[in-house]
Amino acid sequence: MLIKKKEFKEFDEINVLGYRLNPMSKENILDWLNINITNQNRAVLSYLNFHGMFLMFKSRIMADLLSLKETRIMIDSMPLVFISRLIGYNVSRKYRATSLDFYDDMFDLCVKNNWSIDYVGSESSVLKKGLDILKNKYPTLNIAGRDGYFDIKDWSPSSKQNEVLKWLNERNSDILIVGMGMPRQEEWIYTIKNLIPTRILVSVGAYFDYQSGSLVLPPRWLGQIGMEWFFRLITTPKRLGFRYLIEPFLLLFNLFFKTHPQKNYWETRDKQD
Q1: In the chain, which end has fewer C-beta atoms inside a 10 angstrom radius, N or C?
Q2: Angstrom distances, CA of residue 27 to CA of 11, 24, 112, 136, 246
Q3: What is the pTM assigned to this prediction?
Q4: Distances 255 to 1, 23, 81, 143 between C-alpha atoms, Å
Q5: In this structure, are residues 116 and 175 in contact, taking their beta carbons and an 8 Å threshold?
């Protein structure tokens, strides 16, 4: 029996395994950024893969961020694209989007429109190397950064976090990229989103680690066939062994036997509809 394909409009959300996703191609993402920055909208751009889906069962704050009306969630997993198609959504490979696939175009757009970018995350030496690479590649790009090694629960006036927030307010940039790893980056974005004037908040993971050479960059074609995870596994088995070999089974268990982290979102949305 053939499944009738469900059409969706650009930027629309879909429900996959109970998770809210927004299928967005590279062009869609750039258009979305342009629309929101031009109109001075406050918005969040995040992403989801099996690892993030598993962590949402542990982090209520991450689930809350990804349930906000102003948040868009990119599909960062070819298996999620395959599952979306299996349940009837007309989602093609072009809707699998990661930072490594569209950031160069985003930086070009920032230069063209004179948008400023802040980056918070990574270890200090990785941050410096990553910023140097970008500044060499885009000499007129307005980008600055602070490392992500501080206590996100320390709100004392003398804390490093308070210094970072003060710096972000002084910069008043168009885009803030946060690369602290899941779920810490999502939890921090949710906590500070109303404390800074930055228009677009973006969670990114290990982007600078790949750009700086701290982690081996997977060939981009592997992502389009759903095998990027295997390259990462064999290059950093200690770091990613549990994530790729154990977590999918734990996620499956959670989906069957635990309350879904976005159950309330869909129930509330259905009542509003």
Answers
A1: N
A2: 11, 8, 16, 25, 34
A3: 0.91
A4: 26, 22, 18, 40
A5: yes
